[in-house]
């Protein structure tokens, strides 16, 4: 029996959340074989790449996810996080500006200035500080 894309995504997320990154990556890549612009598969494969410190490999995956579905705030957060980790502050500022124009990221980043716990769930403290700095410099 062949899985639907949605079923495959669910399996990949279960493997990903369970720490089985090889299996999750295999499934995400299989999804991208039939749907190269699948935003969730691209984003989640980028998250795996970042977790393995393959930041440069993650960036085009995040970019494809954003190009396909630019209204998902988590995609912007992941992309900005990767840009900051790749020491590309100018690009991070540009991405933040684009997200802000869409009305995204403002709640997460502004609340992060006062209470960093929401951001710390997805980013280490040093990255949060850099992203917040980029956020205000992009204003």
Tell me which oligomeric state these chains represent.
single chain
Question: Secondary-structure element sequence?
Answer: HHHHHHHHH
CATH fold-level assignment of the largest domain: Serine Threonine Protein Phosphatase 5, Tetratricopeptide repeat
CATH architecture term of the largest domain: Alpha Horseshoe
Low-pLDDT regions: 110-124
Mean pLDDT over all positions: 82
Number of helical segments with 4 or more residues = 9
How far apart the termini lie comes to 51 Å
Biggest pleated-sheet summary: none
**Beta-sheet strand percentage?**
under 5%
CATH superfamily of the largest domain: Tetratricopeptide repeat domain
What gross morphology would you assign? Answer: globular
Question: Please, how many domains?
Answer: 2
Q: Look at the helices and sheets and give the structural class.
A: mainly alpha
Radius of gyration: 15 Å
Helix content: over 70%
Topology, number of strands = 0
Reading off the top of the CATH hierarchy, the class of the largest domain is best stated as Mainly Alpha
